[in-house]
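Help!! Second protein's tokens look totally different from the first
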Amino acid sequence: MRIAIRAAAAVAATALLAAGCSRAGTTSTQASSSTPATSSSASASSSQAASTGVSFGTVTDVCHGGNATGSTDQGVTSSQIEAGVLTDVGFTKDPELETTAKVFTDWCNAAGGIDGRKLVADIHDTQLLDVVGAMARACASDFVLAGGSAALDGLAVNTRLKCLLPDFDAQVVMPQNNGASLQIYPIPWSDTYSVYGGYYQWLEQEYPASKNAVGILSGASVITQVDASLVAQTVKGVGGTVVFNGTFPISGVTNWTPYAETLKNHGVKGFTFYGQTDQLTALETAMDTIGYKPDWIDANTNAYGNDFLTLAGQTVLADQHNYADLPGVYPVEKAADNPATEQVVKLFDQYAPGQPVTLQDLQAWSAWLIFAKSAESCGSALTRVCVYDAALKQTDWTGGGLTAAKNVADPGAVPSCYNIEQATTAGWVPAPFDPNNGAYRCGMPAIKVTGLPGPTTLASLGLSLSALK
């Protein structure tokens, strides 16, 4: 099955994805400008090459000076490496991916770049609907894609694979792009098994009365139908029952009370919400008004940020139990307890002062990091096949300590580790989910997902990996 989204429908289908979301690790909407902040320290150039390399977390010698030479592939010269960044910033007005690209490249270039070559971020704004055009522009100029994401990413996979462009993805959204060929996705994820098994298992164990009274409420779109199906299969896989699966107009409604009453009348004791942050907080306010307090609300990572806390207010935060499952990424609010996360915060302070560090920033940073480390290992012989093969050797990747471990060579593996956040009157905090591996709980149930579009492959386009040079 393939999903076709026409232009008019795409806006509606992805209004809730405007922050670059899906449950694959979404952005916060804290940033308000579409232009990344500039740093008083000035953007670094290759002339600032350091004699020794810099490390990030547990990843050593990432960027450094050197004598790499030659125009060894598209986007590579003796002086620079051009990496494309796909973003919906023109639609979302959220500069997260641009900001991460700026901070990473400034930091890397200050240390000498990649073996002496300056790292250049080539921003490709999809404006949401022009994802195929943005990808075509990347195909025409870039060495790889790095640290990017687009809400309609599945529509541009064919274009990317036809030009043999490797993608070091910050976040995947549509199933056609989840595990697609020539993709390096460094976040703990799977294109075959549900990554929410541990999360829903914990919710049902923590609130046993909700086990056979789970609901799903989402904005009506073809994309959220996929998300809702995944949730329903996961709930069933951990022994629960979905008693209500409903939708609302994707643009929202003026009165959320009927939806609150519907959930209450169906006996829903825990539900997942797919929509925008302001929509969820309006619904929860209506729930408070009618005295409806389910055991839990899966706000998902759409809500993981300051916007949700501000919009919800202290009363709703105290009355309702909101949770978000993080895809094995160390919590932003606990940065001081994790050297790698703290290092990102300090680098943002240095190169993009005033810009907050969000969940998607951390995911994008890991994507940039695995690309840079892989490229560094190639030296002068920097080609797409070299950098891609080098990345596939990372079978225990943690982004230097930003995430739980991921074998990037096996995108279909059973996911293992996860972590859960809870919204409280004091802010987002780790929920009491009994971690057994640092900040994470590992060993979630294996729930195979069926009936969804599969990832796009080179073979499906009549191509072969041997064509990559």
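Here's the second one for comparison:
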Amino acid sequence: MTAAAGIDRKAPARAAPRRIFPALVVLFGALFALVPYWNDDVGLRESFLLAAVYITLASNLNIMIGYAGYINFGNIVFFGIGGYVCVDLVTRWHWPLVPAAVTAGVAVSLLALIFGFGILRLRGAFFALATIGVNEAVRQFVANFEPWGGATGIYLSFDAYAPLGGPMAALWLVYFLLAGVMVLSLLLSYAIKTSKFGLGLLAIGQNEDAAGVLGVRTPRHKALAYSVSAFLPAVAGGLYFFKSGIIEPNGAFDLTLSIEAIVMIMLGGYGTVTGPLLGAFLYEELRGYLLTSPTVSQLQLVIAGALLLAMVLFAPGGLVGFVHQRWPRSRSILQ
């Protein structure tokens, strides 16, 4: 009886971080959304909006890189296709914004599921190169697809923002929606990591052949992870390009953003939930400074590459891994 009682007392203690962390994510998201609104700070809103997009991209990319161990350079293709589908539904078919963005996410996720069963037969460098090829192939296809404007893309008129109360009201609404998508990305990453499905992905990341021998259905796990990691970036793409008022192939399928997302993951800590959050937020602030600096504005990618090299050499676990090593108890908060 004493041993059983001891086990019962320890169970709530172990379960506490599982309840605390999601609550902290929701609180962070609420503050993230409301601080620019309270201050009526347009500059801060735009900075945070980009940070929300980067966090969403990095967090979902981390499902493939950090959990399953598959380097995906073409993750931006989900963002771009989602943007095109959403903008097309809003402009040509006059759909409301939210249903259009969600439909874009579902469509891209299903496409990724079907395509994932094929491309995920490749491993290592072959898979990484294939994802680059997929992104470039889709970009060329869209650039020659006339219903989506071809190389010039799609432009939104001011009439598209009228159902939302006009352009200014639409900007705030899109910002709040993107903050919500960011929170959902973090919660999704946490739910996967702490689930049986996530355990299978981590096993694949460690040793795929051994995982298959132990009973993990590796093709299904990888395809589902690929599909899940496509949904929220596609939704974010729809919202972002609706806010921008224009979408064109080079901007929608910019491979540079995929590379930067990998840098964000490595900076914060791959295979963790808060790593992409910290890495993306810090990198966005650094990127904003570099782009506005007259002396180093042309060295953005050079500094990003140097930063990635430094993290790999001196802190391979990223910022979160460094904190975990120094303060082990922080694992209950920095998942």
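Reply: Different proteins will give different token patterns, so don't panic. The beta strands are 154-155, 246-247.
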